[in-house]
Amino acid sequence: MQKVKLLLVAGARPNFMKIAPVIRELKRRSEEFDYVLVHTGQHYDEGMSDVFFRDLGIPAPEHHLNVGSGSHAAQTARIMTAFEEVLQKEAPDCVVVFGDVNSTLACSIVAKKLEYPVAHVEAGLRSGDMRMPEEVNRVVTDAITDFFFCTEPSGVTHLQQEGKEAGRVFHVGHVMIDNLLHELESLPPSTAPTPDGGFGVVTLHRPSNVDSPDVLSGIMSALAQISERLPLVFPVHPRTRQRLDAMSYVPPATIELTTPLGYRDFLQLWRRASLVLTDSGGLQEETTALGIPCLTLRDNTERPVTLSEGTNRLVGSDPEAIFAGAAAALAQAVTGRRPELWDGRASQRIIEHLARELRAHH
User: What does pTM read for this prediction?
Assistant: First the structure.
């Protein structure tokens, strides 16, 4: 029996967290599947060493495109040019893209033009806000995808509304939750010191929150107010650090600014938090999976199941709304449940579907 060959594309560190459980499943089915891992290198990340891949239990990528940062257009163009060569060399049965970064979009377009099937993991998510580069990436990628793997029911609904063929849209659960549950099993007990009596964790990186000095200073003033009741630990994204330095920001003693943390160190931190405040997409889902209250500093989310079933609340960037949201979350127990199929087996379902669909066309 000829093996099915998959080309797995990652553009940035979070993509590898989603790819790791898929690779673990492919290794278990190595008699049926071959895979090739491509890292476009759209974010320079000195933490992406051999240790990083060893920790995730995956091999280093066979192809590293080293495209680096730049404008969206320049970066997308570099990825497309470099990926075309890889695709022609590897000739896979299917290209599998993850999430909503520029690499997701660029590699999907190249694959489709060269007539290779595209599978999109995390398909169908929509914020409805086309000012977000990620939303453009999601919509365009799904316009040309062949196999859609959805994390939550809203993804299925959006794809149905966009006229996708029902037999190619699959609600499978979430590979990032697969990886989270896998990591929790192997995490050693934390020895990191944290404030007595509970603490909160902050992450902030979206241009809409950090690029305007007025918006950023408003958010920081709300965080200062919250930290009087709950000390905050804030691993600072490089973009945010730049903006805070430009404002000559000095944190109060109740807000601890740290350098960015690796996946495991950060997991050790936020899993013990009383509250998480973030503008990240993935953290909304991970906090819901572990039942930790989360305030999302955005006006919309493409992950509505975290609101309807999980522990997430939208508070926007208005300082008063942020403080009120934190006060409410700390005053009463936030309840939620883990959404359907967020059970650690999404990768198995994805590979099952791909095995069946690709065999049918082999």
Answer: 0.93
